[in-house]
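Dear colleagues,

As part of the handover before I leave the project, I'm documenting each prediction I ran so the next person doesn't have to rerun anything. This entry is a single chain, and its sequence is reproduced below.
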Amino acid sequence: MPDTTDRLALPVILADQAQKHVTHNDALIRLDALVHLAVHARDLTEPPADPLAGDRYIVSSSASGDWIGQGGNVAVWQDGAWMFLEPRAGWRAWCSSEGRLLLHDGAGWTSAVPGAEEFSSGTLSRLGVNTAADDNNRLAVKTSAVLISHDDVSGSGNGSVLGTFNKEGAGKDAGFNFQSGWSTRALMGLYGDDDFRLKVSPDGATFHDAIAVERTTGRVTFPQTAALEHLAAGLFRKADPASVAFTRTGTGTLNMKAGTLVGVAGFVHAFAAPTAVEMPALVPGTDYAIYVCSDGSVKADANFQAPSGHTTADSRKVGGFHYAAGGNAGGYNTGGDGTPQINPYSLWDLKWRPACADPRGMALVAGQFWCDIYLTGTNVDVDGSSRAGATIATGSVPPKVPGMFGGDGVATYGSLTWYEATELLSSVGKRLLGYGDFSAAAFGTLEAASRGSDPVTTGLATTNVGASNHDRKFTSKWGVTQATGCLWVWGNAFGGPYANNWGDNTEGRGQTFSQPNAVRLGGSWSNTGYSGSRTAYWFSAPSASIEIVGARGRADHMREA
């Protein structure tokens, strides 16, 4: 039989042992020392000078004097001498000087649970919940769910709950790793730089950027597919597809309507509320484009490439308007006025516009078709077919041949027949007005009246004031200027008396047989009693070229949902 017990090394009473009480008492003394073990300290390098009976200490590894060589053992002051107990793995001891529970792991004493030292500065070196923490994973949690809620207990909470991941520098990582079977399948955060990324992996070794958000602009890209600007390319959506995207709020002010979505340079800008269009100094007789810029602003500019301070890379043209030199007719037979203002019928957007390449200088008539605001000038390749202050093309001031029909920028037609007027407007994607079109477009003009002198140029008295009436009196409800009583315009209709024979009247491009006449519409500056919105003259051959006849274009209305 052994002399001591297996675990606590307590002496046992042997058979026929004399003075059995000595052995028994020794065992009780050891039990008294070990059961509910509590020590005063574990950092003393030498025994205390005046210990009390039963005082216990864990001997420091550097102890001297009576404790030398007893490092790690439990020293008990018993009967005027030190008794040493050698700990084993699993022993626990409360250290009163540290306020902590110690655990012997077989090699030395460590903290069994966080104690006063760990909590004194509000920090813990590591924490494991249901699993062990280590130097890399200083916080380790094994659980089926994690709940983090705002502080509504201590009274210091503000109703928010925030998590912060701070890395040392741009080249380091800060983010979430999502794993399957301890193999990473997705990463989300700042990896390798300061742009936000979402990465995925098939094997935990190769990673693909699925989404990247550029930190300085917020630009979102999809590296494995395409940039958002490609996915949203052409995005232009209105809350009401049955109307233009802008509302006139004053003579020189506009709003972008609420509910409009516009994709610009990789961004999608949503206008939840009406947004004012930033206006430059408006010049009468000028067309302006409306842009949405990458910073979310909405700007108007006379430059049809990009607004001032921006480029085509950070802005998008989404619409436009015409700033007229005068107001539109208020109703039947009233004519317009001389107050410069935005023509409300000239507003257009990407999905509400004329069906021609250039929407400038046009007004929507009765919601049905677009009509040129101005009479056709002499240089459509440069000015388009509707521009204020342009020299009016007539039979006596013929226009240049457009490049589309063989023009070289210098040569003129030499006349302005119906054929040439048609060709001229065709070069810009338009055609002449039909009789019904003209009657609607000229509604509101001063009826049965004329200007009294040759207008020469387009617009409101840009060259001379009419001898009988000012040009503004011949502005229609839709803002069509010099609509009647200024110049006849060729119409896209035929009728009236005609000769029953072949006619060599097409300028060498074939002949016509029994062709009716081409209509002239509106009346000229000298036709005082005849001019008006329904005036039609059916007695001119299409081959005629007359100084009092010009042209005006129209285009279909393009409306997209």
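Residues 71 and 226 are 68 Å apart (CA to CA). The mean pLDDT is 90.

All the best with the project,
I.
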